[in-house]
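Cross-check.
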Amino acid sequence: MELVRTHRLELAALTGPFADALVAGDLGAAAAELRASVGRWHATDPSHLVQLRLAAEAAAAVGFDGFARVVVLAGPPRRAIGSIGFHGPPDDRGRLELGCRIHPAHRGRGYGVEAATALIDWATARFGITRFLLAVPSRRAAHGLVPIEIETDRGDRRGAGIHGLAAMVEWE
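Predicted model, tokenized:
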């Protein structure tokens, strides 16, 4: 599966063996599969990774492969700092729902926005999808999340939709 890259990050495939190793608490096997260091944080609550993996399998079954990713700081050293992916195939309105989780020690540095921009641009280029749903953190929301729908351009303005979004919310 192709690697999605940004200036600082790599969005590596979230494979079955990687998810299985985390659920089993085997950080060594997870790190070997990813070829990057993996901290205890991922194994403490692997639910987001497992959910992304299951959603990715469902999406792949209908022709949308590559939807679940591990966010890796490009380093050196390479290390896993989060997870990102789409929560299944496009809905009946052609939208993909995006979820992203960044390790608390790496929040506030723009990694979430950078990873989301890259994955949205990848989905637009690869599948022609231009509509996305995101639940973004906001101190102004009662439950801490604000649902946002964005539509991207298919032209030269890669990432324009999410960069505008980043100015509106406090996304990691």
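The two ends are 26 Å apart (CA to CA). The CA atoms of residues 140 and 146 lie 9 Å apart. Passed to J.P. for a second look.
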